[in-house]
Amino acid sequence: MANGLVIAAGASLGDSLFLIVTFILLLILVKHFAWGPVVKMMDQRAKKISDDLDGAATSRQQAEKMAAQRQSELKNSKSEALQIVNTAKENGEKRRQEILTAAQNDAAAVKVKAREDAEQARTEALNSARSDVAQISVDIAEKMIGKELNAADQKDLIDSYIKGLTTADETR
After folding, report:
1. Which partner for 134 in 15, 103, 142, 158 could form a disulfide, CB atoms 3.0-4.6 Å apart?
2. Domain ranges (residues) in the chain
3. What pLDDT, on a 0 to 100 scale, did the predictor assign at position 63?
4. What are phi and psi of 147, to 5 degrees?
5. Could you tell me the CA-to-CA distances from 116 to 86, 113, 124 in Å, in that order?
6. What burial class does residue 137 get, using C-beta atoms within 10 Å of its C-beta: 0-12 exposed, 13-18 middle, 19+ buried?
7. What integer pLDDT is reported at residue 62 of this predicted model?
């Protein structure tokens, strides 16, 4: 029995030794052929994830920066639009004042022209009336006196009559 144990123990020791050597050899082969590529692949994966996270953070920062820039541009656009509207209002008000002033000036010019025309017509009417009155008075004087007046007498008579008309016209 003891021999059987030694043989069994020897076989067992040989088997164990074979298994240990095979296991170590297998570990070396796995380390050389599988572990290196797996670790390399895991490192690459970790680096890719890290780069993706950094890229996402950078993209988020750029997006926030662009959002702030758009907000600023929107405020500037609103300010510019308000400025354009105010400028247009001011220009419109200036133009309205110019038109109003021009219309008032034109109205004043028309009034002055109308007064001048009325004065001209009045003067012409008075001159015509004076002429007619002078002729009528000469005709009446000729009939009353019975003779023709000479030019000097006629002029004196007309001047005195016109003075009478002018003073009568001024008293109205």
Report:
1. 158
2. 2-171
3. 93
4. -140, 165
5. 44, 5, 12
6. middle
7. 93
Only one residue has tokens 């019975």, namely 146
* Segment-wise mean pLDDT, segments of 10 residues, the chain, 172 residues: 46 87 92 85 93 92 93 88 91 92 91 90 82 73 64 76 71 63
Element (H, E) at 31: none
Model pTM? Answer: 0.38
What is the amino acid identity at position 35? W
Q: What is the pLDDT of residue 19?
A: 93
* DSSP secondary structure letters along 55-113: HHHHHHHHHHHHHHHHHHHHHHHHHHHHHHHHHHHHHHHHHHHHHHHHHHHHHHHHHHH
Structure tokens at 145: 């006196």
- Non-local CB neighbours of 129 within 8 Å, separated by 6+ positions: 165
